Automatic annotation (TrEMBL):
The keyword Transmembrane helix applies. Keywords: Membrane, Transmembrane, Transmembrane helix. The chain crosses the membrane at residues 93-112, 118-137, 158-177, 189-210. This is Uncharacterized protein.
Length: 229
C-alpha cells in the first residue's frame, strides 16, 4: 500500500510554506497540497525516502526563488479578478435603473457648482475624507480578524487594500487645478459635475459595495473559506 502524508506532516508542510514567506492561507493550502501529492508520488518509486528529504527535493523544483513566483502569479490573477469585479459593479451605475440616480446626482452637483464653483473642492475634499475614514476602519477590522483567526486570504487582502483609490484621486484633482483659472461656463461645470460623481461612485464601489459582498466572493474563490468574524 502506498504511503500517505500524515496530518502531522501536513502541518509541517504548512509551517514550511510560512517559513518560506507565503503569508496567505489560501496559497499555503495550495502549496502544501501540491507538496503532499508530489511527496506521495515520489514514495511510490522510493518508499523508504525520508519525508524531510522528499520535501526538500520537491521544493528545489521551484527554483532559486522558491515559492515567490507562485505567490506573484496568484497575486496577479486575483488582482485582475478584483479589478473585474470592481469595474463590473461600477458600470452598474450607468445602466438602468441606476443611471437615473446617477444623472440626478450629476444634476444636483451641477446646480451646486452653479452657485459657487469653489464647492468643487469642498465636495472633493469631503469624498476624500469619507474614503480615508472608511479605508482606515476597514483596515483596522481586517487586522483584528487576522489576529483572531490567524489566517490571511489574498483576495481579502486585495479587497481591503483598495490600491486604486489614491491613483484615481489624481483625475478630479488635476481637473480642479487646471480649471481654477478658467472662467466657469456650462461645459466646464458639466465636466466637473460628471467627474465628481464618477469619482464618488468609484469610491463607493471599492469601499462599500465590494466589501459588503466580500464573503460571497471569498466563498466562491476559496470553498474552504469560513467567515467567522
Amino acid at each position: 500500500m502506498a504511503k500517505k502524508v500524515s496530518e502531522e506532516q501536513m502541518e509541517e508542510l504548512f509551517t514550511f510554506t510560512r517559513k518560506h514567506f507565503v503569508e496567505y492561507y489560501d496559497l499555503q493550502t495550495e502549496l502544501a497540497d501540491h507538496l503532499a501529492n508530489a511527496i506521495e508520488e515520489s514514495w511510490i518509486t522510493y518508499p523508504t525516502l525520508d519525508f524531510a528529504k522528499a520535501k526538500e527535493q520537491e521544493f528545489k523544483k521551484f527554483g532559486i526563488f522558491g515559492f515567490m513566483g507562485i505567490v506573484e502569479q496568484r497575486q496577479a490573477v486575483l488582482t485582475k479578478k478584483y479589478q473585474k469585479l470592481m469595474w463590473g459593479y461600477f458600470k452598474e451605475f450607468f445602466k438602468l435603473p441606476r443611471i437615473i440616480l446617477t444623472i440626478l446626482f450629476i444634476l444636483i452637483v451641477y446646480k451646486i457648482l452653479s452657485f459657487n464653483i469653489i464647492a468643487y473642492s469642498l465636495i472633493l475634499g469631503a469624498i476624500v475624507l469619507i474614503s480615508i475614514y472608511r479605508l482606515v476602519t476597514m483596515w483596522v477590522k481586517h487586522k483584528q480578524k487576522i489576529k483572531q483567526t490567524g489566517k490571511k486570504w489574498l483576495l481579502e487582502e486585495i479587497i481591503t487594500r483598495c490600491g486604486g483609490m489614491i491613483m484615481l484621486l489624481n483625475v478630479p484633482a488635476q481637473i480642479f487645478f487646471r480649471l481654477t483659472d478658467v472662467v466657469p461656463n456650462t461645459i466646464v461645470m458639466w465636466l466637473m459635475s460628471i467627474v465628481l460623481v464618477a469619482f464618488a461612485l468609484y469610491q463607493y464601489t471599492i469601499l462599500y459595495i465590494i466589501p459588503s459582498k466580500a464573503e460571497e466572493h471569498l466563498m466562491a474563490t476559496y470553498p474552504e473559506y469560513n467567515l467567522k468574524f
